[in-house]
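Hello support,

Our group uses your service weekly, and this is the first time we've seen a run hang past the timeout. The protein is GNAT family N-acetyltransferase. I'm not sure whether the cause is the sequence or the server load. Input pasted verbatim:
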Amino acid sequence: MLVRYKKAFEKIAMGLLSFMPSEKDLKQLQQTMKTYENDENWQLFLWKEEDVIGVIGVELKDKGIVEIQHICVNPSHRHEGIGKKMINAVKELYKDKHVIPSEQIQSFFEKCDHEQLEKEES
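Update from on-call engineer: The timeout came from a worker crash unrelated to the input. Re-ran successfully.
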């Protein structure tokens, strides 16, 4: 289930975001968290099942575009379709907008879209 980020989840959100190659540097990670906390156009969501196991962050852009900036799943829960579920939940949340990937998550996004098309065709 997708839940909006709250300050109480800061440590777990930072831990999950730190798995992204662009967020390995602590100063960069702290800046990213500040952006999500202070810029209303940047929204961070957590994926919660029994525990929080994933994070997805979006930027609300002009002209009805929502760009996914970050997506990460706890390594012990990878290859379970969690990333795809998070992307689909964001698409549902912003169904009146066009959801696109940032450059750094584009290949994962396209893989999820490709798998979704294959599923619909079968």
